[in-house]
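Re: that chain you flagged

S.,

Sorry for the slow reply, it's been a week of failed gels. I finally had a moment to sit down with the sequence you sent. For the record, here it is as I used it:
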Amino acid sequence: MIPISFEAIVDLALAEDLSAGDVTTESCIAPDTRAVAHAVARKPIVACGGPVFARVFAKLDSTVTFEAHVAEGASVEWGTRLWTVRGPARSILMGERTALNFVQRMCGIATNARTYVSALPQGSRTRITDTRKTTPGLRALERYAVRCGGAHNHRDNLGSAVLIKDNHIEAAGSISDAVGRAKENAPHTTKIECEVESLEGLDEAIAAGADIVLLDNMDTVTVKEAVARAKGRVILEASGGITLERVRELAAAGVDAISVGALTHSAPAADIGLDFE
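Prediction finished late last night. Pasting the structure tokens below so you have them in one place:
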């Protein structure tokens, strides 16, 4: 991640927590007190978010130093020191909760993504991807966390690609009409993906010229038939109600990608603490 992608997010979070100062720290801690604090994993997790953790403290106080002990995306065990900050105790205490909120969320998503990727069969070329079901304002961080976990990103925003969903089809009149208009009006550099709910819809999308077809809420038997019908003419993506248990069978069926909203919207926060020396 480059800092410009998360600077504003950090600023907003700090303003939310410190708009009225920190009455506890300012009342209890002498201004000249210095401290060393370590972010420690309380459970096995995938490390993610060190740059954001560091930036929180740097924003508060440029004299706070940061040290990373593990690489981004590394799987770590219980008790592992992830990052260390050193500097004025007041500054570290003021940034503690904000910094932890970010990395607990990011490590949780990275750990969740790694679980889904690990469920793929050995040697599989199927991609596990996220969706746009992200926390408003935090998409850049959550998509980065997905990558740290070894999964891939779907389109970043509504301008990234054409993704024709069921409501687009209803409004346009048919799959053929929606795909045809997209081919006429979208930039020539833009891929066109169309969601379908049946094998007949798949045939229609392919005939209309879609580049990618999203197989929505299809059982595994139907997905296998879709792969056979497509014959490699389009990229096939399985989506809708994807569980960890289905990843292996869908990959074995031959789809190119499996998109999982749960990577972000249902990831539990990682258990990370900040221990002072």
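What I noticed first: The chain has eleven helices and twelve strands.

Talk soon,
D.
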